[in-house]
Design brief:
Blueprint lengths: L1 H13 L8 E5 L5 E10 L2 E6 L5 E5 L5 H14 L24 E6 L9 H22 L19 E5 L12 H14 L8 E6 L2 E4 L2 E4 L4 E4 L4 E6 L24 H19 L9 H7 L1 E2 L19 E2 L2 H7 L3 H4 L9 E12 L2 E11 L2 E10 L9 E6 L5 E6 L5 E11 L4 E10 L5 E2 L5 E2 L1
Parallel strand pairs: 5-6, 5-7, 7-11, 12-13
Antiparallel strand pairs: 1-2, 2-3, 3-4, 8-9, 10-11, 14-15, 14-22, 15-18, 16-17, 16-19, 19-20, 20-21
This protein binds zinc ion.
Zinc ion (ZN) binds next to helix 5.
Length: 450
């Protein structure tokens, strides 16, 4: 009898069926608790399915309490079969599988319309192009070839979440973002997905084509907080990453625009609004780098995306500030901490002036632990924030930092700090200061003492 039960337990483990003992209350090093089911352990990461919402996410083993770490180690050694030599493989020696939340892609069609021709294959190419753009950018800034994961079915086809609008085409105007998000949210709920816990790109069949003219009917906008977000963008039968290099005239545009220009505008726009959905702010490239690198995606680089494929300059690139923020985003780390808004205290802040620059130093504390910041240095000459240059830095273990900011020219500036916590969310602070006609900053406003 004992042997039979033993085999039954083994069979359950092999089949991957959760045992009652796999559901437990987990405690992290900060004492926070949640209930979830142990799924597995690979590459130093523990996969857990949270009971409250069914989300599966992973966390490094060392973030858990000693008791949880013991539990994981005992589960791993129980599951790992002895090798021929009788030596068990090292815990965590297996490479990590795809983990964490994928980016969701939805398709919104008004009640009186059909999806644009060939939409599934085209949008797969569009999203794969954008995925590759982000991966190349992360690699260029030293974060390795990391990017977001696309939601794909077992046959590798892109999972497109179709949303049939309740109203006809002309009812969705430029200001319809809340109505469209609501309809998408309802469709997500029907599928057991929580729109408010995802990052979503919604392609809308809301461009109106006429000979020589394309009119934008619906909203084109992105927003997010570093945990969840959405981007509302357009689909059109011309939209295709395979056509970024095309010099064919676009019969639905004015002014000699090409099909390549159309795709630069709207694929670049999709990549930019997705950046906002990831929580990224606007930031421009440094002037001295523009010639070589082109323009920053989160500045005005969306207008240059893929131009290099037509021999029209260096195209767009991912800025160091964007890459820093994304290096903490759950869709890039595969971790899924929580969407807790961080509490942040600037304990000390001061700036050492120089001609044409300053060095910002300080100490910052908070919960969850702040790990770094981006200083957006924004000249007041342009009232928009597209021309702010973002300067990222990581904190030392004690929360101190030292960040040189250069390229200052005479005039007024706003310095906006986004302090990032380890869960990928940021808290914002803003300061104003002047640079005199000799290029010397007045740093008296850049001072905090607690
Ligand atoms: Zn923007």
């Amino acid at each position: 009898m004992r042997t039979v039960i033993g085999w039954m337990l083994l069979a359950l483990v092999v089949a991957g069926v959760a045992r009652a003992s796999d559901v437990r209350t987990w405690t992290d090093r900060a004492g926070r608790q949640f209930e979830g089911e142990y799924i597995g352990f690979t590459d130093g990461q523990v996969q857990v399915k949270r009971t409250s919402d069914g989300q599966t996410f992973q966390l490094p083993l060392e973030r858990f309490s000693d008791a949880d770490q013991q539990f994981v180690k005992s589960r791993v050694s129980a599951e790992t079969p002895p090798t021929k030599t009788g030596v068990k493989p090292e815990v965590g020696a297996k490479p990590a599988a795809d983990a964490g939340r994928p980016l969701r892609v939805a398709y919104f069609v008004p009640a009186d319309r059909e999806p644009e021709p060939n939409h599934l294959a085209r949008l797969d190419r569009v999203m794969t192009s954008i995925q590759t753009f982000y991966r190349n950018g992360m690699r260029a800034h030293g974060y390795g070839p990391t990017t977001f994961r696309l939601d794909r079915a077992a046959d590798n086809q892109l999972n497109l979440i179709m949303v049939k609008g309740k109203e006809p085409f002309q009812a969705y105007d430029r200001e319809a973002k809340d109505r469209i998000r609501k309809e998408v949210r309802e469709e997500f709920a029907r599928r057991g997905l929580d729109f408010e816990r995802e990052v979503v790109v919604v392609f809308q069949a809301l461009l109106l084509r006429a000979p020589g003219q394309t009119t934008e009917i619906g909203p084109f906008i992105g927003g997010g907080n570093g945990y969840k977000g959405s981007a509302l963008v357009y689909d059109d039968m011309r939209l295709d990453a395979a056509l970024l290099g095309s010099n064919q005239p676009d019969g639905f545009s004015t002014g000699g625009k090409t099909i390549g220009d159309f795709n630069t505008g709207y694929i670049g726009g999709t990549a930019h609004e997705l950046g906002h959905a990831f929580g990224l702010g606007h930031d421009a490239e440094r002037t001295m780098l523009r010639q070589r690198l082109g323009r920053s995606l989160m500045g005005r680089g969306n207008h240059d995306y893929g131009k290099e494929l037509r021999g029209k300059g260096p195209g767009a690139f991912l800025s160091p500030a964007s890459a820093f923020a994304l290096s903490l985003h759950p869709l890039f780390t595969g971790l899924d901490l929580d969407d807790k808004s961080p509490e942040v205290t600037i304990e000390e802040l001061s700036a050492i002036p120089a001609v044409g620059g300053l060095t910002l130093t300080g100490r910052i504390t908070g919960d969850p632990k702040p790990v770094g910041l981006i200083a957006f240095n924004d000249p007041a000459t342009d009232p928009s924030d597209y021309d702010a240059v973002g300067w990222p830095t990581r904190f030392k273990a004690d929360g101190t930092f030292r960040l040189p900011i250069t390229d200052l020219v005479p005039g007024a500036y706003e310095l906006r700090l986004r302090v990032y916590s380890e869960n990928g969310q940021a808290k914002r602070f803003a300061y104003s200061y002047q640079v005199d006609s000799f290029g010397r900053p007045d740093v008296s406003q850049l001072k905090v003492t607690n």
